[in-house]
Design goal:
Elements (H helix, E strand, L loop, with lengths): L3 H14 L4 H5 L5 H8 L7 H11 L4 H27 L3 H14 L7 H17 L5 H12 L9 H16 L3 H11 L7 H20 L3 H18 L5 H14 L4 H17 L3 H15 L1
Helix pairs in contact: 1-5, 6-7, 7-8, 8-9, 9-10, 9-11, 10-11, 11-12, 11-13, 12-13, 13-14, 14-15
Length: 292
Amino acid sequence: MISNEELGAIVKKIRKERNITQKELANGICCQTTISYLEKGKVFPSIDIMYYIAARLGVTIDYFFRTLEEEQNIYTNSTVAMIEKLTKEKRYEEVYELTAAERKNMKYTIFPHKYIQYIHWQYWRSAQYIGVVSWEKCVEELNNLTNHQKKEIPKLQDLRIKNVLANVLAENKQHEKAKQIYQELLQYDVDTQEYNKLKLKVFYNLTRLYVEDEEYHLAVETAQQGIHYSKKVEDMSAVGNLLFQIALCYFQLNEDKARTKQYFEQAKFFYEFLDHSIHVKYVETYLAHLEN
């Protein structure tokens, strides 16, 4: 619901754009004091008064609400973009400060559920990264953010949070719990580009966990499923990583050198294509070892 202050600011902005005085706007509708109080956010007029004010300003009554929604969308979208950028650059202290400020802002402004959920997610994850809260507390709060939709098909953001939840568990040696969540995420079938990218991340995360636990055959199987899915959705962004994990498994299993080398070279091809020079050098160390 729009607040007194927000409605007053919009009315004042339109009135000034139209070069109308408060007295002219009030004429025949209400007293000038009401307009003054409205613009200062001190009163919320009745619906009939708002109807006549809107008509005199040359807008429909829903314009006030649509304008606020559009301005809020610009604000929330830019805030999310900033948090995504900071997270990608691993500037977690700044993410924490920004999300902490937004959590305070939520006490005075009504935001969409998706934005509120996003801010809380990024707050707890960044707080855990910089040591403000324990990983157990982070897991608890992320669980709380996604446990509200047990009967519905989860939305993409719920699935993204679950992936992060599994990552936190994996980082803290809770491997079986993490695997269970990753496997659950792979069961969903949502035909959107964003979900496809998330699913490829999950294939990679689960594969890495199997490798870490020396479950090499499961790792190879999962990575191959991920490569097959990459072809299906025409997204090759994760193929290099998945090929590398298969090569690593064969290396650890002392499989045929030619076969192992083939997978390392395929992974190197994708890394070179994507300009991932650090990954290329990493693969080259294994290739050199195979030559010895």
